[in-house]
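Worked example 3. Consider a protein that binds coenzyme A.
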Amino acid sequence: MCDDLIAKHFINSALSHQLHQSPEGTTHFTLNPSGRVWLISHNTPTDFAALDKLDPRWTTLNSYDPAIVAWAAEWNHSAQHLREMKIDVSKDKIPDEPKLPEGYKMPSTIEAKLWYLEKFPTLAETIHKAGAQVFVISDHTRSIPKKVAWCTIIMDKETKKCFISTLEVLPDYRRKGLAQYLISMVARTWSATVEGEGTVWLTVFDSNVPALTLYEKMGFKTNRELWNIIRAGTIRRLSIKTDEWGSG
Ligand SMILES: CC(C)(COP(=O)(O)OP(=O)(O)OC[C@H]1O[C@@H](n2cnc3c(N)ncnc32)[C@H](O)[C@@H]1OP(=O)(O)O)[C@@H](O)C(=O)NCCC(=O)NCCS
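Given these inputs, the predicted complex is written out as structure tokens:
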């Protein structure tokens, strides 16, 4: 199993996961629910002959590895930057409990998880395999309360990394501070859990301005950027300069 938390998330988000073992190293092949192949490789030598055998119509690549990105760049298809961002948390400085806007409440973690599994049944395996925790916000200003915002996290106590794997606020409920509240709760929960220093991680596409603005406002810093390259997609094309990458 890959020890990179972000790769772990992608792998856990997949219906099936295969490791391709070549004499040089391991490449992760995963199939997401739509049948698209995701390749994830992290600076391990790669068997390009094996990659070339994949069905080109269904290949999406996520990689930090300049050699693999250079290989995929030859497809000359759409590509975008996916940023890996993080903030530091510490047991010694647990942030104050954030305030929810009036009329909103957080159900218990058990209720949140049951609701999430009911709403996204195809993600049940992902949630169970990754041991994810779910945070939800309900609107109690309505006669029947409604769940309007949620996020899921994967925690790794050994590396003290917590990964925000999903975050969403329903369109009618945006710009009320709900996402900021959820992330603050995650940071608070994680600082209370780790011994000493820990980190909260997430990934975001550069094109997602609302999310990127939110994360920067909350102090997240870009750790490195990976490329998400789709062989038959429609996302804007960028020129690829692998020498611009952060060190990771
Ligand atoms: C990104 C998202 C989670 C933000 O949720 P939200 O509850 O509206 O965010 P908040 O109200 O907590 O915003 C806090 C701050 O983030 C920034 N922000 C949020 N939405 C923004 C937007 N559309 N444009 C610019 N800045 C924005 C602002 O600085 C905002 O503070 P302000 O309202 O005082 O100016 C929401 O737009 C969403 O669900 N998008 C679709 C799913 C998604 O992209 N998830 C993230 C995947 S990485």
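Take a moment to read the result before moving on. Residues 5-82+226-244 form one domain. The chain has a mean pLDDT of 77.
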